[in-house]
Amino acid sequence: MDTTLHLAAIAGEQDVFALRRVARTVSEIAGTDRQDQIRLATALSELGRDRLGSSGVTVRFALVARPSPALEVTIRWRDGAPPAAEALDSARRLVRDLSSEAAGRQGSIVLRQPVPLRADGFAEAVSRLSEALDEEQTTNREDDLRAQTKDLILALEHARVQSEELQLLNDELEQTNAGVLALYAEISSELEQTNIGVVALHAELEDKSRQLREASETKTRFWANVSHELRSPLNSVIGLSQLLADSTPEELGEQQRHQVGLIAASGETLRVLVDDLLDVAKAEAGQLIPQLAPVDLALLLAQIESVVQPSAPSPEVAVLFPDPAGLPTLVTDEMMLTRVLRNLISNSLKFTSSGHVRLSVRCLEEPPGTVEFTVEDTGIGIPPQEQTKVFEEFHQVRGAHQRGKAGTGLGLPYARSLVILLGGTISLASEVGHGTTVTVTLPGSPAQEPDEQARLPLIASADDDPAFAAVFRPVLEAVAERVVQVPGGVELLEFVMREKPAAIIMDLNMPDVDGYETIRRLADSEETAAVPVVVVTGYPLTHVDRARLGHARAVLNKDAVDAQELRRALGSRFEEGTA
Fold first, then answer.
1. What are the tens digits of pLDDT across the range 90-103?
2. E strands, 200-251, where?
3. SS3 content of the chain, % helix, strand, coil (to 5)
4. Please, are residues 530 and 521 in contact by the beta-carbon 8 Å criterion?
5. CA atoms within 13 A on the CB side of 344
6. Which of 424, 468, 460, 472 has its CA nearest to residue 445?
7. Are 10 and 51 in contact (CB under 8 A)?
8. pLDDT reading at 579 higher than 50
9. 327 and 361 in contact (C-beta within 8 Å)?
10. What does the DSSP assignment read for 359-426?
């Protein structure tokens, strides 16, 4: 629906004033606010003056209902230049809905201004607008100028108010910006201070770590030196006691013979403690090297049984061993395994006054060939808060049960060190008053030196140097059917836990988690402790901290490693001096 309200021609300045007056009247009656009235009138005045140089200029006011009620003003001309860009830009700033078309010397401009009319009141609004325009009286130029001046004054006042509001907003923004800058400076200062503190703390931690390593090395050297120094006089005491005990009754009376026996027994006890101390020191220094060979478990357990049976505290404690028939074959270090089992059984007997101490052996399906040894007793048990500490050197569970029980607190830590050297794991479960169970798992056949043509199923390699990784890959492929290379320790740990490779080859200098920490985590996990690890590094081997690489089988130099050397490394345990 489109209803023409007014149609006029523009030929001179007076017509422009009339156009402005009609626009104000129509907008006002249509219900638009005063600002919209002034905007429409000013836009039409600007465009009307621009068209004064053209001929056949007409202006049509119409009220349209669709798509929404609006006042539509159309300016047409038959002959003239296109409207100036400045005039169109000024009009668009006042009335946003504006379109312009030009074809040769003729064209049109259409302005639309929304009006607040309801659809059911459209006809009534048209009638009122027509009557108002019919009653519109012609005014002179001075009246139009006054009206225009009044409109300009109102527009200037409106602009002044907006300018003041903008100034207030600008002041607020400047204050906010000043606050933000102050806060930024404060935060930057705090971050700088925090960073200085972090750097200082890191340096302090590095220094403390170095001191701890040095202290640990000093402690290990002290243990070894003291143990060696004690052995000579101790052997003399034991030897002389035996010579005295072999004297004739005429040379040595009964009471003296008894005293010599006490000296000899005490000397033997002391020698066992010194041997344990020395072995712990060797294990920590990486000087205990397993000698792998097939072990006759039936014979080994029979020998252990003959030694520990007499040490039962009373006839009320039964020492139970498994049936020798059907015991599995095991390739391990016989001496180390003997020490582990004797240590665990003796420890159980020490704190069991009635019931039994039982050793059992069984084969596990996963991993294939794994052998599990369990030492279970009905002794006093270990409190929960102490169970995580019993594998620490020199730690002894406090309590009245310790009275009269000789010991150094080295038994379980020593057993744990030997089990790790054998590629196995050890765990403990206990309940106060109901006894303790210690479980040791060992690989049935640790990796032997492979045949030159044999290849492992899967090797995982970690090195953050892509150039070396590319050069090293053919060496790895000569040793393994499948090779997976990763850039760092984090990726290596995730892959090993997920895929369980047959061997691990790794660098020491890696991002996120370095080689030392990666090896420690591999050794501490029951799932990965048995996987053989070989370190291949660019560091001079004299600069490698070997004490922290006790779980690795070998440390090789990047400049000299080849497939043959890698095969040998995978078939032997890490030892001091490995090239």
1. 889 888 899 998 88
2. none
3. 50, 20, 30
4. no
5. 27
6. 424
7. yes
8. no
9. yes
10. EEEEE-TTTTT-EEEEEEE-S----GGGTTTTTSTT----SGGGTT----S-HHHHHHHHHHHTT-EE
Query: Which residues on adjacent β-strands are paired with residue 331?
Result: 294
3-state secondary structure of 89: helix
The 3-state secondary structure of 161-198 reads HHHHHHHHHHHHHHHHHHHHHHHHHHHHHHHHHHHHHH
Q: 63 with 71: CB under 8 angstroms?
A: yes
Half-sphere exposure of 355 (CA within 13 A, CB side): 18
Q: Is the pLDDT of residue 451 over 60?
A: no
Helix, strand, or coil here: 63? strand
Spatial CB neighbours of 125, under 8 Å, sequence gap ≥ 6: 29, 30, 31, 63, 115, 117
Cα distance between residue 273 and residue 234, in whole Å: 11
pLDDT digits (tens, 9 = 90+) for 161-177: 888 888 888 888 888 88
Question: Which structure tokens are listed for 87?
Answer: 């005039």
C-alpha atoms less than 13 angstroms from C-alpha of 321 in its C-beta half-sphere: 20
Q: What angle do CA 533, 534, 535 make, to 5 degrees?
A: 120
* C-alpha distances in Å from residue 172, one per residue of 165, 185, 456: 11, 20, 73
179 falls in which pLDDT band (50, 70, 90)? confident
27: helix, coil or strand?
helix
- pLDDT score of 296: 85
Q: What angle do CA 334, 337, 339 make, to 5 degrees?
A: 110
Instruction: Give CA separation, 86 vs 47, 73, 100, 426, in Å.
Output: 10, 19, 13, 90
Q: At 343, is the secondary structure helix, strand, or coil?
A: helix
Question: Which residue do the tokens 């620490």 mark?
Answer: 392
Phi, psi of 148 (to 5 degrees): -65, -40
Report the percent of the chain where pLDDT is more than 90: 14
- Summarised one tens digit per residue, pLDDT across range 18-71 is 888 888 888 888 888 888 888 888 888 888 888 888 899 999 888 887 788 888
C-alpha distances out from residue 285 to 52, 218, 387, 412, 516, Å:
106, 11, 26, 18, 16
Check: pTM over 0.85? Answer yes or no: no
Q: Which residues are bridge partners to 9 per DSSP?
A: 58
